[in-house]
Each structure stands twice: as C-alpha cells, then as structure tokens.
Request: fold
Amino acid sequence: KVAVRNVRKDSNNKVKRLEKEKEISEDASKVAQDKIQKFTDEHIAKIDEAFIL
Reply:
C-alpha cells in the first residue's frame, strides 16, 4: 500500500509542477489528480482483497 501511495504522491507532484510551469491548465491538473486518486483507490482495494483470507 505504501508503494502505491508513494506513486500517487510522485504523480501528483509532477502534475502540480506542470500546472505551475503553465504546461497544463488548472482544470487539467484537477482532472489528472482525480484520475490518480481513482487509480490509487482501485489498487489499494485490490491489495486489500488479496490479503483477505
């Protein structure tokens, strides 16, 4: 789970950097961050399922 969350953090930081550098809009940044969170939630759920005996 920690590794997945670290990927989320790194990805969000890259998106925020692109927004700050004006390479993407604020709206595009929000959409990307929402997708990253959805991806994270899905994978955390899969990890949780895998460890339920």
About this structure: The chain is about 85% helix and 0% strand. Residues 8 and 51 are 21 Å apart (CA to CA). The radius of gyration is 13 Å.
